[in-house]
């Protein structure tokens, strides 16, 4: 199959490229665009390390072909921080609350948590656990991940109230 023209917005930047439409999005991001935040974990869509935000939805980028993402708006862990480089509340909460250990699942976990808080700004612990259930962490036990998401929810609520 021949390459197709790809146009999409990644982390606020419009890109144009040529790619085999059957290339997995995770490989296009990492290998062609040098966006290495999303990780390749299991290649079977079970772990969620490759989670990105596409057109307002959490997607495991190992389950989507780049041709399917053509025309999309994609946010990866690199695009969640503020333009000046300061961390988003969810990233800062993970840092402050030890929501990571080895860090392998962290980009996908934070990206999923970012979307979860957009969908439900004040989730309960049960809603958080359900909301991140598609993302696996092999070393934290999830306690501090849940604590981090709860803290980010509170911080974002405070920021919104101040505006």
TrEMBL record:
Entry-linked InterPro entries: 2Fe-2S-bd (IPR002888), 2Fe-2S-bd_dom_sf (IPR036884), 2Fe-2S_ferredoxin-like_sf (IPR036010), 2Fe-2S_ferredoxin-type (IPR001041), Beta-grasp_dom_sf (IPR012675), Diverse_Oxidoreductases (IPR051452)
Residue ranges constituting the 2Fe-2S ferredoxin-type domain according to the UniProt record: 4-80
PROSITE patterns registered for this protein in UniProt: 2FE2S_FER_2
Coiled coil: none
Alphabetically ordered keywords of this record: 2Fe-2S, Iron, Iron-sulfur, Metal-binding, Oxidoreductase
Protein name: (2Fe-2S)-binding protein
Source organism per UniProt: Kiloniella antarctica
Domain of life: Bacteria
């Amino acid at each position: 199959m021949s390459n197709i023209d790809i146009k999409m917005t990644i982390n606020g930047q419009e890109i144009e490229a040529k790619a085999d439409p059957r290339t997995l999005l995770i490989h296009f991001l990492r290998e062609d665009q040098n966006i290495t935040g999303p990780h390749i974990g299991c290649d079977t869509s079970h772990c969620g390390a490759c989670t990105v935000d596409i057109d307002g939805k959490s997607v495991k980028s190992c389950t989507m072909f780049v041709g399917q993402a053509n025309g999309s708006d994609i946010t990866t862990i690199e695009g969640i921080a503020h333009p000046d480089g300061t961390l988003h509340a969810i990233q800062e909460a993970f840092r402050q609350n030890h929501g990571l250990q080895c860090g392998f699942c962290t980009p996908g976990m934070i990206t999923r948590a970012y979307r979860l808080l957009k969908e439900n700004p004040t989730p309960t612990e049960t809603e958080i656990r359900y909301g991140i259930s598609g993302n696996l962490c092999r070393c934290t036990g999830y306690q501090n991940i849940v604590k981090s998401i709860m803290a980010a929810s509170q911080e974002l609520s405070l920021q919104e109230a101040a505006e």
